[in-house]
Amino acid sequence: MEEERSLNFIEQIVEKDLAEGVNNGRIQTRFPPEPNGYLHIGHVKAICMDFGIAEKYNGVCNLRFDDTNPAKEDTEYVETIERDIAWLGFKWGKIFYASDYFEQLYDLAIRFIKEGKAYVDEQTPEQIAEQKGTPTEPGVASPYRDRPVEENLRLFQAMQNGEIEEGKMVLRAKIDMANPNMHFRDPIMYRIITSHPHHRTGRRWNVYPMYDFAHGQSDYFEGVTHSICTLEFEVHRPLYDYFLDQITGPNFAGLSPYGPDYRPKQREFNRLNITYTVMSKRKMLQLVKEGLVAGWDDPRMPTVCGLRRRGYTARAIRTFMDKIGYTKVEGMIDQGLLEHTIREDLKETAPRVCAIFDPVKLIITNYPESPDKPEILVAENIDGHPELGTREMRFAKELYIERADFLEQADNKFYRLSPGGREVRLKASYIIQATGCEKDANGNITTVFATYDPDSKSGTEGGNRKTKATINWVECSSAMDAEVRLYDRLFAVENPSADERDFRELLNPDSLKIVTAKVEPSLAQAKVQDHFQFLKQGYFVVDDDSTPQHLIFNRTASLKDNWQK
Question: Is 34 an annotated catalytic residue?
Answer without folding.
Answer: yes
